[in-house]
Amino acid sequence: MDETFQKDLQWHPDTVIGEWRRGESSEELVEISEAEAVRVMERFRQRFGGGEQ
Fold it and tell me: How far apart are CA 24 and CA 16, in angstroms?
C-alpha cells in the first residue's frame, strides 16, 4: 500500500504513487529507503513534536 507521512506525523494511505506511475500525476516523487524514511520521520517528530512511532 502506498502511504504518505502527513502533517499529523502519521502515515496515511495515498494514491499518488500509482497515479504517478500511470502518468496521471505531475507530482515530483523521490524514492527513499526505509532507513532514510525513519530518519526523516524522527527529525519531523523532534521538530514538530509527538506522533506515534
Answer: 9
pTM of the full predicted structure?
0.56
Domain ranges of the chain: 3-48
CA–CA separation, 36 vs 41, rounded Å? 9
Residues 1-53 pLDDT 10s:
688 888 888 889 999 888 988 999 888 888 888 899 899 889 988 988 765 54
